[in-house]
Each structure stands twice: as C-alpha cells, then as structure tokens.
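Quick one, probably user error.
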C-alpha cells in the first residue's frame, strides 16, 4: 500500500496537509442543529437529480411526437423506470422545498447581512435556476397540463415590456409551441441549467468557505458547549446521516405515491382548468389577481426587492429606528406566500 502511495506521490505531488486544511474548516457549534445546516439538503438532492436524470435521459425522446410515449415507456415498461421517475419527481419537490426552507433560515437569522450580501444574491440566482429546472422538467412530459402550463408561461413572458417578445420566441423556438420547443426545454433542463447550478454552487460554497458561516451564540448554552467542531469527520457525519434519511424518505415517497401519467397534450383542446406545479401557485394566483402588465411588472419588482434585500435592510437599519423590521416583513411575506398558495390549491379558477 505504502509503495502505491509513494508511486502516486511521485507522479502527483499534492500537498495532502494543505488540502486537508482547505477542506477542514472549523464549523460553528450551532450547525449541530440540522435546520442551520439545511443548505446541505438541496446540494445532496441536486446530486440525486443529476444521477436519476441521466438514467431517465437514456430513454427520454424530446420530440413532440415521441416525448409522451417515451415517458409512458419509462413509467410502465422499463425496468425500475417507475422508481427512477418517482425519485426524480419527488427529489425535485423536496429540493425546491429545501431551498425555500434554507432561504428562510438565512433570512430569519439575518445571515445575509454584511459581509454576506453577495452570497445572498448568488443564492437568489440559485433559487431562480432551481425553479426554472422545475418548470422545464415538468414541461418535458408533454401532458395536457404541462403543455398548457408552458404555453401560459410563454405568453406571460411575451408580455414583459421591451424584451418579452424576444424571450418568448427564444423559449419556444418560434412564434408558438412547435417542433423546436421540447428540444429547447430539454437542453435547458438537462444541460444549461444544471451546469449553471454547478457553477453557482461552486461560487456559493467558495464564498461560504472564505467568509465562514455566521457564528451564532445561544444564551441557553454554556461557553464550553459553543466550541467549533471539525468539518471532517464531525460535520460530514451529520450530512451523511441527513443524506441517508433523505434517501429513505425519497424511496418511500416514490413507492407509496408513484408518479402517474396524465392525458397526452392536445394543442387543439384547452383544458377547463390549467394549473402549474405547486411551487408556482403563488405567482399564478398573483397573476390572476392583477392581470396584465401590472401583474408582470409587480412580480419583477418583488423579485428585484428579494435580490436587493440585504441592501434595503441595511438602509432601513441605518436610517430608521425599526432595526428588526426584517422579521415582521419576513413573517408577512411567509404568510402571504402560504395564503396565496393554499388559495390557488383550493379553487379551480
Ligand atoms: C441550490 C440551492 C442552494 C444550496 C445547495 C445552498 C447551499 C448552502 C450551504 C451548504 C450553506 C452552509 C450553511 C447551511 O447549510 O445553511 C449555505 C449558506 C448560505 N446560503 Fe445557501 N444554498 C442554496 C440556495 C440559497 C438561497 C436561495 C439563498 C438566499 C437567497 C442562499 C443564501 C445563503 C447565505 C447568505 C448563506 C450563508 C449563511 C450563514 O453564513 O449562516 N442560499 N448555502
């Protein structure tokens, strides 16, 4: 064994000690609580999505003539196809939920404040990319609902002032949903967005490593209980346990609630009720409440405020006496999001 190590060291003169130091950051004690470390969950689920997605792509065919039939084949005939599709579908659901919970944790603990503003904005881009992955993935199945959902989304994109028409045409690959559309969704879903996510995650983790995670102190804990611990093996162990629990959860969900097939897309028949996936319910309800350009512009404004939040919050804290305004604004935002989502879930139109 030693001879093999020496042989390798001769050829690859890597300084193992500095490598160990680079990957072995002291982790603040509060990360023993899993909700503070929930950022690791979407990262883990992303790996599951890449692995299951590659296997699904073996059978998926991205043309309007064959897409639905290929998904049906995966679901009903390919060996363990139903299981892989179930893992991918539930993995997407849990990943989006985990990103939202992680963002809420960061928000309510004020972990986006100076010097972490940039990482918050990288995080917002990660959120947008994850939602886009969800949208493009859902569209690939070519069911009635996903076809009409994509058509509505493209029309909404088209009503964005100035650039809307161009973006809509880029997304659909033409004036309307046609032969070019599904291949575009597929390239976005299986190549462009995952690569973007990998790059953004690299930047997110690098910034995190440079700055370290925010150190929180808890009054209920004595000083000696607050000592940092090693990333390796202590924190890695926590992540492995979370990973195993997630794997069992995913497997159970994929088996107990298997993914089914809805009716095939029919461009000539508009369904009575058009619904997007649950994570777009809030935006869909908002767009229905204020239809037209106002709905689009206000959505854009809300997303802008979310991006710029660390700077807006710093301004409020500097210029006013409402230093904890972010908590109340956050509670209001969470209740509004839950309220609009439940509303959209309960009504047909
Ligand atoms: C795919 C999505 C994402 C992944 C995989 C991810 C991963 C992580 C990880 C592993 C951490 C270390 C601490 C923890 O586990 O909570 C972290 C911290 C952080 N994340 Fe994310 N993140 C994602 C999305 C986001 C989003 C949407 C935001 C906010 C808009 C965000 C903002 C931050 C900030 C500011 C920190 C530093 C927190 C601190 O210092 O305590 N991240 N992220």
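Nope, works fine. Designed sequence:
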């Amino acid at each position: 064994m030693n001879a093999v190590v020496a042989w390798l060291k001769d050829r690859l003169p890597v300084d193992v000690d500095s490598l160990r130091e680079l990957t072995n950051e002291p982790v603040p004690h509060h990360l023993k609580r899993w909700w503070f470390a929930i950022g690791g969950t979407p990262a883990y689920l992303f790996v599951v999505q890449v692995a299951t997605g590659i296997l699904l792509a073996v059978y998926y065919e991205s043309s309007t003539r064959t897409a639905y039939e290929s998904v049906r084949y995966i679901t009903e005939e390919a060996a363990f196809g139903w299981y892989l599709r179930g893992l991918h579908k539930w993995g997407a659901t849990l990943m989006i939920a985990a990103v939202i919970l992680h963002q809420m944790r960061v928000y309510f603990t004020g972990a986006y404040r100076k010097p972490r503003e940039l990482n918050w904005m990288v995080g917002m881009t990660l959120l947008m990319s994850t939602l886009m992955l969800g949208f493009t993935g859902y569209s690939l199945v070519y069911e009635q609902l996903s076809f009409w959902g994509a058509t509505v989304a493209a029309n909404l994109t088209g009503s964005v002032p100035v650039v809307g028409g161009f973006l809509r045409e880029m997304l659909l690959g033409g004036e309307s949903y046609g032969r070019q559309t599904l291949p575009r969704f597929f390239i976005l879903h299986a190549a462009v967005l995952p690569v973007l996510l990998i790059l953004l995650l690299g930047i997110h983790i690098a910034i995190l490593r440079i700055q370290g995670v925010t150190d929180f102190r808890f009054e209920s804990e004595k000083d000696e209980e607050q000592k940092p611990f090693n990333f390796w093996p202590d924190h890695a162990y926590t992540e492995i346990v979370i990973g195993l629990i997630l794997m069992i959860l995913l497997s159970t969900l994929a088996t107990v609630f298997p993914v089914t097939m809805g009716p095939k897309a029919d461009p000539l028949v508009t369904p009575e009720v058009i619904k997007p996936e649950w994570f777009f319910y809030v935006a869909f309800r908002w767009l229905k409440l204020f239809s037209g350009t106002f709905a689009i512009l206000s959505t854009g404004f809300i997303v802008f405020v979310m991006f710029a939040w660390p700077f807006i919050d710093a301004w409020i804290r500097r210029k006013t006496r409402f230093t904890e305004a972010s908590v109340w604004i956050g509670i209001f935002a969470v209740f509004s999001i839950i309220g609009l989502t439940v509303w959209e879930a309960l009504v047909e139109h």
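Residues 36-40, 42-43, 99, 102-103, 106, 111-112, 116, 119-120, 123-124, 126-127, 130, 201, 204, 208, 213-214 surround protoporphyrin IX containing FE (CB under 6 Å).
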